[in-house]
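pasting for ref
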Amino acid sequence: MNRDCEYLFYTREAADWNEALPLGNGSLGAMVFGSPDGERIPLNHDTLWSGRPGNRINRKVKDTLPKTVRLIRDGKYADAEKILQSGLEMIRTNSFLPAGELKILFGNEDRASQYSRDLDLSTACASVKYVKKAVEYRREMFVSHPDRVLAVRFAASEKKKISFTAYLTSPLPFRVKPDQGTLLFEADMPAESGSSYFRMRDAEGHTGISYAIRLAVQTQGGTVTLFDNMLTADQADSAELYLAVETGFRDYQTPPEATGIDCAAETGRIICAALEKGCDVLRERHVRDYQALYQRSILILPETDTPHLATDERLKSAMEQEAGFSPALAALVYNFGRYLTIACSRPGSQAANLQGIWNPLILPPWNSNYTTNINLEMNYWPTETVSLPECTEPLFRFIFDAAEQGRETAREMYGLPGWCIHHNSDLWRFTGAAGGNCRWGFWPVCGAWLCRHLAEHFRFSGDVEFLKKVYLVMRGQAEFLLGLLQEYRGCLTTIPSTSPENGFLEPGTGRKATVAFGSQMDISLIRELFENCLALADEAGYGSDPVLDRIREALPKLQKPRIGKHGELLEYGEEFEEEEIDHRHLSHLYGAYPGREFTPDRDPEFYRACIRSLERRGALSTGWAMGWRAALWARFRDPGKFSLILKNFLRPVTEVVKMSSPNGGGVYNNLFDAHPPFQIDGNFGVTAAIAEALMQFHRVNKDGLPVIEVLPTLPAEWSAGSVTGLRAYGGLTVDLDWDPETVHVTFLAARQIRFEFQGRIIALPPGGSASVRGAAKVADSNRKR
């Protein structure tokens, strides 16, 4: 473990939730505060959402579309928006909610000294250490994926010094009782909730999902008693606490009361197994399981600041430096992003939501839902490239479910075949239009973005069986989009169309509007999906699919991108004055990143226009938006601007910053991304951006072979370092080790592959490897924009 690159460390307890340290096993999430007087650990479970099965659909939208389209064709965009919005009912998704909170009271209020708390990214274990009256106290916590428990181990430097009382609580109604030597907590999720309300039961008297939490304590020496719904350990030499959560959720279609899941019995089995194994065995199994994923890719960069500073002090120090910041801090952010992915998204779990699997609020911002106009996708930007492909499996299941549920939405809202999903969803796979406002609610092409992840996984893995399954999902989305397109001004385009959450000023009137035709993001996504269907159909076994003929006919007719008077890529099919020039979303630049439509080889004029657009958007924004900006500057091979955005992203944010402040983003002291408030997507966006700065593989040569570029956007401060386990298309893994003079590159092929590297063609058989040593400085031609 490299202390500066793989270790979060603090010399004081967490002052609030945004300073607590996250633990997770994909499903069970925990936040560790680390007080020497009493621990508190807020808990979440990935399936604990409000609500019940059902897909709420804005059926009135279909009736508004003809008049909306006529007004758009007449250039009356603000009027068109009013008509379209009249069909958007105020529908909200359900919410991801807290399971409860574990509280541990020590009853020893003596002053603590030599305090420290940490999160070791190399083991996924958090620990707290301090001294009281010459006795050193230590506790370590982890959430085990193989054994499905939160484990807390207590130790002291003297015997009989471990005493505490543990209990569970929740802001929701709950029931708690002793049960076979353990504490059993049971509760129900609300039948409905939103950003400002919740109802425990629906009109028929049903609650939401039922669940159970079971708590057990095991000591060496001393006694354990159950009294007044609390577990107490007294005068023990050491102790272990185990906690398990089980919920009554089966799938998005099954009512909670019909699942037949006995949550209490299942938590009993989990706890009994944990007690039998003991903490040493549990920890060994946990670390082995976690490191099998984590150790695939680790970034190490030099520490140029004072070594071994506390993490919050490192953030302050970075802001005080006139130029740049310690490279090791960037490595910590990269490794932390991979840690968070492993902690909140595992095969079999739910997809990571706006807050991963960590939310303490009963009325969370944006319902802590799935926001599919950027945020859910950004959660999974890095997974393939940073060697965590398994962690994308929950996203794939989400897409399969949404494609099934979205058939009704496509039919009832638009009268079209195929499937669609709008900008918000939840555990129940809601696919209608949420929020009652065109600015964010009306964007029916989200499915095309989700389909990108399906095609990308095949390009990385070569898994033909996977492709056969997902091609039908891609086909269904293509079928919907073919029906959505309309002929206008000599091309095929989308009418009505929005660019996610942005707006413009209507020509001639200056009125604010959000509805027009042919947003660049619509067209980029549709073009990408159509090209992917054509490219992959034969390998999927659907080469004679009649939909392909329609795609071939439509593709050359799609609206072409345009360049505006400032040299920028236009965001809509017509040139408008921008309502908000530094808007957080960069939707029209999708084709530059994460897409690969605009490259210096394929279309240099539009590539330069993308750069101009990004310059106009500015270097400060919300947290996740700076993640996208960093990824774009990395792809544009601009080390200076990439480094500047990273530094802006690392600005320490306090609770006094206004929620959703347009330029108020950064990180909290626990390195969680601050929108503000906390959204986890920014952590993953920056992880992907750092990977992009270290290796790129999206371009092809004249023969169609992938071109591998290493260190294309290396900041001057990162003069030496190493990274393992970066992945490129074709099952290629790349390790890098560099100093100011040379770079050593090792390629490992999972399957047969040919690619270009530094002007030469390298061919590798399955399992083959190659090592290349060259100059670390990137050639000027590679940096050309």
